[in-house]
């Protein structure tokens, strides 16, 4: 897989609002800082998505880059795209084998009493006519594991680092809510309110050659809560 390239050599024709979102650029892959509210893939009803950015991100390649995984629409942060078909296949294998190391930041309501731990709760999909589909922790679901540690605390909230060991839909949101500390801004799983979902795909590391690593800054809507939990003392 290719090595790192000069950003200036690749970004000249990319609109500035998209170029500013590129965290890492190399021959085989790039990592975007996906904004909260933007879907990874275009849904059946249309709407804005990362797919709208792909022509601008092609940058002379034969094929459009493609996301190698997905982030929930309301989750900000690191999204990896393959820039060639062989690279996309290699990236897909890394994610399918569970070799991607994903690190998330969340600000939750309340928070755990302990400093660190893990959540091992199976998750399944449910659907009702009134509320549509959602995920829930249930014994009949698929095995799901999240490791966590507390990075800071504030008034009625906590700043957590979350490391999902499985990749279930809405896993982090469901696991946090099931333990009584839902993620701030998550109206679906119990902690609504203004400001958006306080969940960030903070960092990703992939065992490629050379290794791929990237880190995303917190989005503006999370900064206030993070500072309230001590983040300003660690930057």
Task: Write up this protein.
The chain has 235 residues and is of the alpha+beta class. Helices cover 18% and strands 32% of the residues. The model has no long low-confidence stretch (mean pLDDT 91). The strands form 2 sheets. Strands 1, 2, 3, 4, 5, 6, 9, 10, 11 and 12 form a 10-stranded mixed sheet that branches. The chain has helices at 7-11, 16-19, 54-57, 85-96, 171-178, 220-228; strands at 22-25, 29-34, 66-67, 76-82, 101-109, 116-120, 123-128, 132-137, 145-154, 157-164, 199-206, 212-215. A hairpin with a 2-residue loop joins strand 9 (145-154) and strand 10. The protein is globular and about 50 Å long. The chain has 6 helices and 12 strands.
Task: Describe the secondary-structure layout.
Elements: H1 7-11, H2 16-19, E1 22-25, E2 29-34, H3 54-57, E3 66-67, E4 76-82, H4 85-96, E5 101-109, E6 116-120, E7 123-128, E8 132-137, E9 145-154, E10 157-164, H5 171-178, E11 199-206, E12 212-215, H6 220-228
Parallel strand pairs: 4-11
Antiparallel strand pairs: 1-2, 2-4, 3-4, 5-10, 5-11, 6-9, 7-8, 9-10, 11-12
């Amino acid at each position: 897989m290719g090595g790192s390239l000069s950003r200036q050599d690749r970004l000249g024709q990319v609109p500035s609002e998209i170029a500013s979102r590129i965290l890492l650029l190399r021959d085989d892959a790039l990592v975007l800082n996906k904004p909260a509210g933007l879907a990874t893939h275009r849904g059946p009803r249309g709407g804005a998505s990362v797919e709208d950015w792909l022509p601008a991100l092609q940058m002379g390649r034969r094929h459009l880059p493609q996301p190698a995984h997905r982030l929930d629409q309301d989750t900000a942060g690191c999204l990896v795209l393959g820039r060639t078909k062989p690279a996309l296949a290699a990236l897909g294998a890394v994610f399918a084998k569970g070799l991607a190391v994903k690190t998330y930041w969340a600000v939750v309501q309340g928070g755990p009493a302990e400093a660190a731990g893990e959540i091992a709760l199976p998750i399944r999909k449910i659907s009702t006519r009134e509320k549509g589909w959602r995920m829930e922790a249930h014994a009949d679901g698929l095995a799901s594991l999240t490791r966590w540690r507390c990075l800071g605390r504030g008034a009625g909230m906590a700043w957590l680092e979350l490391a999902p060991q499985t990749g279930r839909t809405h896993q982090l949101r469901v696991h946090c809510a099931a333990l009584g500390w839902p993620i701030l801004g998550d109206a679906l799983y119990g902690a609504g309110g203004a400001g958006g979902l306080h969940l960030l795909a903070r960092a990703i590391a992939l065992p490629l050659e050379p290794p791929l690593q990237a880190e995303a800054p917190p989005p503006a809507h999370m900064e206030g809560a993070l500072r309230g939990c001590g983040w300003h003392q660690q930057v």
